[in-house]
Specification:
There is one protein chain. This protein is α/β, with parallel strands linked by helices. The protein folds into three domains: about 230 residues, Rossmann fold (3-Layer(aba) Sandwich), CATH 3.40.50.300; about 210 residues, P-loop containing nucleotide triphosphate hydrolases (Rossmann fold, 3-Layer(aba) Sandwich); about 55 residues, no CATH class. Helices cover about 35% and strands about 10% of the residues. It has 22 helices and 13 strands. Helix 2 crosses helix 3.
């Protein structure tokens, strides 16, 4: 009779196997439920909060499979492949690097592939025989390299010697957002699934932010999940330990001064900032450096690691160093207090000591918002209240309310792009519960860790900015001296304007070239003379004072 892992006997066997591993681990109840369903060959879709240990589903699964293959007496009726391999698809390279910590996997992405080429190694050839875990991304999973690998793994001569025993997709929610815009490879994951055999190959899908309704159904349809052929674990994605604050952005988003962010340096709390674009990230970085330098006029260069950037324009070595600095405590000499990152830092990257997450710019959807706010308080410090601070303009608030009104009345126009409606409601927590169908309370976990340190409970009264006044220092709009606008008769002609743009662009290059390399080696030319300033100079050329 076939052994059923999702019965109490299977739960006990998994616990016994994990106790004998080099690093004993007791899984949470919801992890144990999902792992045993996967061992029974059932597709698994798990939706649990950020920082709840979704990576453990993959690690524990392959540990149990390898233990049973090594010692068949543990489960004589199990039919796992003799050389099992776990194929893990991650949306970003930082997530792959983080999952690789503590393991000996084979990570295949653009960065590791280039490094292997310098060593004259072929990672895809190595993947055919050596590793038990292969980490890759959607951009690699549709390449001809993987197609060749799959053909070699499933050749008729040795159909059971190297069968991938599991397909996993960590952080599956970008299939809807990124896959529809700039990462078209995400939409090919269903075709990758079709190339793998069904035996011992159900999906393990994990995310913290998959809204009910159309977003959830879209992912299921793309990956071939139908009612009855998958097991769903949905816990509340609410983070009671994170206070959600929506604040007005007074400074222009295209400017280079952001006094709203001065509190970050004053309070000295570990912070991660998510600007909407790399250009905005550079301008925020420059402003914070100027503000920090003004406080230390005697120092030529302030602490070099206090404020750092993380984006694809940096060297890989610099980004790797930044990820390592994020692990340091505030008492360390190499403590990085502020990191300014892009979307690649918002998916699955653990930043244990971060206590504040600051978002600036347009919010695409609530998934993006919650993922970024979920980067804080990953260590679950007892009694600590982390903050998720979102800066939006008054115009964005009005457009969000407009989107809510049109959704209620059904007056939305086809193709019209409006901001995310989660900005408009007064109580942000209630709106999140509605969008994600969060239960009022999750079933208590009986593991030793949760028994000793229970998860944070919801406060008696909601503490979001819509329910209580925000406790951030108010910022007054900067007074600007009004200047007379140039009369049409004194405006520059098209030829004069083109000449002026050319001269100012040359000036920008000259300023950038003579700038102190020690201070400004990372700064782009745009920081020294922005396009907005060039436009303003030419618009008011005849009324300039100096």
């Amino acid at each position: 009779q076939k052994f059923v892992w999702s019965f109490p006997e299977g739960y006990s066997l998994v616990r016994r196997i994990l106790e004998s591993t080099p690093v004993p681990y007791e899984p949470h109840d919801y992890q144990l439920e999902g792992i045993c369903k996967s061992l029974d060959g059932v597709n698994l879709f798990t939706i649990t909060p950020t920082g709840s240990g979704k990576t453990s589903y993959y690690i524990i699964y392959i540990l149990v499979v390898l233990a049973v293959v090594t010692d068949p007496s543990l489960c004589p009726t199990a039919t796992f492949p003799s050389n099992s391999c776990l194929l893990v698809i991650c949306p970003t390279i930082p997530l792959q690097m983080e999952m690789a910590l503590g393991l000996n996997p084979l990570a295949i992405n653009s960065q590791t592939r280039d490094e292997a080429r310098q060593r004259h190694e072929d990672l895809w050839m190595l993947a055919r025989t050596k590793p038990n875990v292969i980490l890759t991304g959607p951009d690699m999973a549709d390449k001809h390299f993987l197609k060749s690998l799959l053909r070699s793994l499933f050749c008729r001569k040795s159909p059971r010697t190297r069968v991938c025993s599991k397909r996993t997709f960590d952080k599956v929610h970008p299939l809807n957002s990124w896959g529809a815009s700039f990462r078209k490879d995400f939409g090919q994951m269903g075709f990758v699934k079709a190339r793998l055999p069904e035996k011992h190959n159900p999906w393990i899908l994990g995310s913290a932010t998959v809204r009910t309704g159309r977003p959830f159904n879209s992912i299921c349809q793309l990956l071939g999940l139908r009612d009855g052929n998958y097991h769903l674990i949905r816990c509340s994605c609410a983070r009671p330990d994170v206070q959600i604050l929506f604040c007005d952005l007074i400074s222009p988003i295209s400017g280079d001064s952001f006094p709203e962010l001065d509190f970050i340096l004053t309070e000295n709390r570990p912070t991660v900032i998510f600007p909407k674009s790399i250009s905005l990230a550079f301008r925020i970085y420059a402003y914070l450096l100027r503000t920090e330098a003004a406080k230390h006029p005697d120092k030529r260069v302030p602490c070099p690691n206090r404020i750092r950037m993380y984006n694809s324009l940096n060297f890989d070595s610099y980004n790797t160093e930044t990820r390592e600095l994020l692990k340091h405590d505030p008492t360390d000499d190499d403590y990085c207090q502020v990191v300014i990152g892009t979307d690649s830092l918002s998916v699955g990257v653990a930043m244990g000591v971060r206590m504040d997450a600051v978002l600036i710019g347009t919010i695409d959807d609530t998934d993006d918002l919650l993922q970024k706010l979920g980067r804080v308080n990953r260590t679950k410090l007892a009694g600590a209240i982390a903050r998720g601070i979102v800066y939006v303009s008054a115009a964005t608030r009005k457009l969000s309310q407009k989107a809510v009104d049109r959704e209620e009345t059904g007056a939305s126009k086809a193709g019209e792009v409006l901001p995310d409606i989660s900005i408009a409601p007064e109580c942000k927590v209630t709106e999140v519960d509605k969008l994600y169908d969060n239960p009022d309370s999750d079933t208590p976990c009986t593991c030793a860790k949760c028994s000793a340190l229970p998860p944070s409970l919801r406060p008696a009264a909601c503490n979001c900015s819509g329910c209580i006044p925000e406790n951030l220092p108010p910022i007054k709009a900067q007074a600007r001296r009004a200047k007379a606008k140039a009369k049409p008769s004194t405006c520059l002609s098209k030829i004069q304007r083109a000449h002026g743009v050319s001269r100012l662009l040359d000036l920008r290059i000259e300023i950038w070239q003579v700038a102190d390399q020690l201070k400004f080696w990372m700064f782009p030319r745009l920081v020294f003379l922005s396009d907005a300033l060039i436009t303003s100079i030419l618009d008011n050329f005849f009324v300039l004072d100096t």
